[in-house]
Amino acid sequence: MRRKLVTCGVVLVFFAALLSGCSSGTKQQSLTSKASEKKVRIGIAQIVEHPALDAARKGFLDTLKAKGYEEGKNLEVDYENAQGDQTMLQTIARKLVSNKPDLILAIATPSAQAVAAETTTIPILITAVTDPVAAKLVKSNEKPGTNVTGTTDMNPVKEQIELVKKLVPKATKIGVIYNAGEVNSQVQVNKVKEVAGKNGLSVVEATVSNSSEVMQAAQSLVGRVQAIYLPTDNVVASSVQSVVKVAEKNALPVIAGEKGMVDNGALATIGIDYYKLGQQTAEMAIRVLKGEKPENMPIESQKEYKLFINKDAAARMKVAIPEDLLKQAGK
C-alpha cells in the first residue's frame, strides 16, 4: 500500500512539474508576443505643405501600413509642419529629437538640415532632398557615413529644359523663380543654366525669400522671357498658383519641376512621382528599423520619370501641344 502511495506521489509531482512548464512556456510566449507588438515611434518634420511634399509623406505612411506598421496599433507618428517658418522648423527638430523616436523622417532639404543639426545618433530618413552632399547631410551618396540616408528628388533638368524647347520652339530666354536661400534650389538653377546654354537659351533669374514675393517675381519676368521654369523649390511650390495667374494673363508657358505644380496649373513637366518616392523611402526606413545602419545605405533616386501635361493650362497659356508629346503623356 505504501509503495502505491509513493508511486502516486511521484506521478503527481511529475504532472505538477509538467503543468508548471506549460504555464511557464505560455507566459514566455505571451512576453514574446507583447515584445513583438511594441510600438515603433517615428517623428516627421516637414518644412511646408504643398502637393509634392504631402504626397511623399502619404506614400511613406501608406507603405509602412502595407508592411504591417499601422498608426493606432503598433506605430506612433509625431508629424510636425513648420508652415515655411525656419525658426519654427528648428523648434520642431529639437522637439522631435528630444522625444527620442526610433527614427525621424525629414521631408525636404531645410527639414533634413534642421534635424541633422540636432542629432548624430537617431536615424534620419530623408526624402525630397535634391542634393544631400551639397546640403552637408552625407559624405557621399554612395556611402553616407552619417546617421542620414533616404531618397533624392534631383530633377531630370536636362529633359525638362529640352521640353521647354519642344513646347516653345522660338524661346530664347527663360525665367527661373526660386528661393536663393534653399541649397536644393541653387543646385537646380546652376544645372538649368548649364543645360539652357547648350539649348540656345539664356536664363533670367527672379529670386524670392518667402511666398508673398512669388507673384511679384513672376510679374518681373513679363516681357523679358518667353517661358518660365520652376524648380522644385519649397517656397515657389507652395505658391505656384500665383505664378500661374501671371502666366495665364500674359500667355507665358510655365514648365515645372514636378507633377504637383502641373496639377495646380503649370503647363507641363517631366518629373518625379513624389508618392512613389515616399514609398521608396519607407522601404528604406523598414530596413533601418530591422537593424541596418543609415551610414552604410546609399542614397536612392527614382529611376523612372514621366511626362505630365495640363491641357487646360495649355489652352489658357495659348500653347499648342505637339501631337507626339500628347501621345507620350497619354501612356
Concise description?
The protein has 331 residues and is of the alpha/beta class. The protein is built from 13 helices and 12 strands.
SS-based class: alpha/beta
CATH class value of the largest domain: Alpha Beta
Structure summary, number of beta strands: 12
Number of domains: 2
Helical amount among residues, as a percent range? Answer: 40-55%
Distance between the termini: 91 Å
The percent range for strand residues is 15-25%
What is the assigned CATH homologous superfamily of the largest domain? Response regulator
Largest sheet: 6 strands, parallel
Round the mean pLDDT to the nearest integer and report it. Answer: 90
Low-confidence residue ranges: 1-36
Strand line-up in the sheet with most strands: 2-1-3-4-5-11
Secondary structure: elements and pairs:
Layout: H1 2-36, E1 40-46, H2 51-66, E2 75-81, H3 86-98, E3 103-107, H4 109-116, E4 124-129, E5 148-152, H5 157-167, E6 173-179, H6 183-198, E7 202-208, H7 214-221, E8 227-230, H8 234-237, H9 240-249, E9 254-256, H10 259-263, E10 268-271, H11 274-289, E11 300-301, E12 306-309, H12 311-316, H13 323-329
Parallel strand pairs: 1-2, 1-3, 3-4, 4-5, 5-11, 6-7, 6-8, 8-9
Antiparallel strand pairs: 10-12
Helix pairs in contact: 2-11, 3-4, 5-6, 7-9
What does this structure look like?
The chain is of the alpha/beta class and 331 residues long. The protein has two domains: 40-152 and 273-298, Response regulator (Rossmann fold); 157-271 and 306-329, Rossmann fold. Helices cover 47% and strands 18% of the residues. The protein contains 13 helices and twelve strands. It has helices at 2-36, 51-66, 86-98, 109-116, 157-167, 183-198, 214-221, 234-237, 240-249, 259-263, 274-289, 311-316, 323-329; strands at residues 40-46, 75-81, 103-107, 124-129, 148-152, 173-179, 202-208, 227-230, 254-256, 268-271, 300-301, 306-309. The strands form three sheets. It has a six-stranded parallel sheet with strand order 2-1-3-4-5-11, sandwiched between helices. Strands 7-6-8-9 form a four-stranded parallel sheet, sandwiched between helices. Helix 3 (86-98) packs across helix 4 (109-116). Residues 1-36 have low confidence and may be disordered.
